[in-house]
């Protein structure tokens, strides 16, 4: 469970990026964080894992207030949070397996990580995760030999290899085509459901957010202006968040072509 209490951030430049943001996310809930450019979405994600220092307020992960931690305690707390990035952040010259195992780096001792030697349990988990994300046959390939969608699946497996209590996902589909984007969102959603893992997904694409999350939080100018079920995201609400736009037309342009008939649908991969 994650709880934000009156979280605010004003940058040194005077930009007020977040203003008293409060919400709680229970176990297993996948939240889509939407809002126009500059609304504060990245700042919010980064304040949670303290890549950006909040100005005030608190971030509770279970019983731990992350805003009060420093040094070693902060590093340990960060292990409890898995991250998935827009540009995948893989080590290109390493294999898929090594990239997934790097999710354990915060856990293994210094010399083991230097030699890149991991406990057998970590290796077994990595194989299992690679099967689940549909890359079981690719474990020995170099990351730079993969497509964008495959890279993001490695990113998902790496985050889950950490056994996180919370998943923070920053624009996971921004570099992917529409069909691959749906597959990746479906995969994140099903992996979270299976593990009862809460997640916040910063996502530009409103239709993807609506189709593949349990709850939507809409930010505008650093404030929460919508917090509710994806179905409650009416055109009026979207206008409140983003301003005027032809939402009916946008929805029509983005309709999902029957996902069940998609032969590359990762949700049919065994184990999901
Ligand atoms: N390092 C920084 N220094 C100063 N101001 C910043 C910094 N990072 C972000 N901001 C400002 O904070 C506000 C929120 O930015 P943020 O990047 O969090 O928004 P966003 O919703 O993630 O936008 P986008 O969708 O374009 O990525 C903006 O006004 C931005 O200019």
Automatic annotation (TrEMBL):
GO MF, any single term = ATP binding
Q: Where is this region: Disordered?
A: 250-272
Q: What superkingdom heads the lineage?
A: Bacteria
InterPro entries given in the database record:
AAA+_ATPase (IPR003593), ABC_transporter-like_ATP-bd (IPR003439), ABC_transporter-like_CS (IPR017871), ABC_transpr_PhnC (IPR012693), MetN_ABC_transporter-like (IPR050086), P-loop_NTPase (IPR027417)
Q: What is its EC number?
A: 3.6.3.28
Answer whether the UniProt record assigns the keyword DNA damage to this protein: no
> Where do the ABC transporter domain residues begin and end?
2-246
Q: Where in the cell is it found?
A: Cell inner membrane
Q: Which Pfam families match?
A: ABC_tran
The membrane topology noted for this protein in its Swiss-Prot or TrEMBL record is: Peripheral membrane protein
Which Gene Ontology cellular component terms are annotated?
plasma membrane
Q: Which NCBIfam families match?
A: ABC_phnC
Q: What is this protein called?
A: Phosphonate ABC transporter ATP-binding protein
Whose protein is this, by species? Marinobacter nanhaiticus D15-8W
The record's gene field reads phnC
